[in-house]
Amino acid sequence: MSASSEKSRIIKQWIEYAEEDLHLARHGLKIKSSCPYKLIAFHAQQCAEKYLKAFLVLKKVDFPYTHNIALLLELCSTHAEWAKEMQGAAALTQYAVTARYPGKGMVDRKEAVQAVETAIYVRKTLKKALEQGMS
Questions:
Q1: How many domains does the chain have?
Q2: pLDDT along the chain (135 residues), means of 10
Q3: Dmax of the chain from CA atoms?
Q4: Helix, strand, coil tally for the chain in percent (to 5)
Q5: Domain range for residue 66?
Q6: Rounded to whole angstroms, what are the CA distances from 123 to 31, 98, 100, 105?
Q7: What are phi and psi of 44, to 5 degrees?
Q8: Which of 88, 97, 80 is nearest to 115 (CA)?
């Protein structure tokens, strides 16, 4: 397998995982009672994180296995103008911890919806950047 096709395979895996996270987050918003908003926000954060990491793979940028969206955006910013315009997505970072550990705060419906909307924005921007970079 060539280095180019291996890189393409890895990028596609990051995207696949990101899409699964977004799918689950969107589906979770349909739950009528006892909705786990913290988990919806977590999966929205994971979607954005994985799309950013796919872009970094495309650009051959080593990155730490971190949940810090601001750090990932900083790494992307040397390769893409859109990263500077996406700083609001850094707010998703808090949900990487909130959902996983007791005592780290609650997430309400409004926050979960905003997290999903932010993930969708990141996804839209990154899909375009990835398509341009892989063509």
A1: 1
A2: 86 98 97 92 98 98 95 96 94 88 85 98 97 85
A3: 50
A4: 75, 0, 25
A5: 3-134
A6: 23, 22, 23, 26
A7: -65, -45
A8: 88
